[in-house]
Amino acid sequence: MEKELLDYTTAKVDEIYAAPSASADTKKAAQAWKDAIAKGEDADAATNAFLDAISEHQTTIDSLIAFASSDKAKQIFGEDTAKGMVEHAQARKKAGARFCDCAACRPCHELLAKFGREEPDVYL
């Protein structure tokens, strides 16, 4: 893998790993990628494994809207924050977005798009 692409991937994996909204599975996959790179393992193989893992945990815009509209989201975030999340997601959906843009999801989708695994999403 070229250094520029490896550096880009490293930055995105670090963003994902640091995101409070990243699931345990996503953090585990990010750590596995970081460990493989640190050990000098094949970066392309490690990256493909990571991309496979994160593509299994995608939050669609409709799933985000449904969750943010739920009583559970209101309990977790508070009614006003949950309402703001719904409004934000609905505006993104209207603009053509297909996925969540939280601190964990956005870099996942940027990586998937960079490696040709999906079309770039809409970010406002």
Write the topology of this structure:
Blueprint lengths: L2 H16 L5 H15 L4 H13 L5 H8 L2 H7 L1 H16 L10 H10 L10
Structure description:
The chain has 124 residues and is mainly α. 69% of the residues lie in helices and 0% in strands. It contains 7 helices and no strands. It has helices spanning 3-18, 24-38, 43-55, 61-68, 71-77, 79-94, 105-114. The radius of gyration is 16 Å and the shape is elongated. The mean pLDDT is 95.
At a glance:
The chain has 124 residues and is an all-alpha fold. Helices cover 69% and strands 0% of the residues. Helix 1 (3-18) runs antiparallel to helix 7, helix 4 (61-68) runs antiparallel to helix 6 and helix 5 crosses helix 6 (79-94).
Number of strands: 0
Query: What distance lies between the first and last C-alpha atoms, to the nearest angstrom?
Result: 31 Å
Output the structural class: mainly alpha
Q: Major beta sheet, specifics?
A: none
Mean pLDDT: 95
- Rg over CA atoms, rounded to whole Å, is 16 Å
Q: Which outline best applies?
A: elongated
Summarize the amount of helix as a percent range.
55-70%
Q: N-to-C SSE series?
A: HHHHHHH
Sequence stretches where pLDDT stays below 50 over 5 or more residues: none
Number of helices: 7
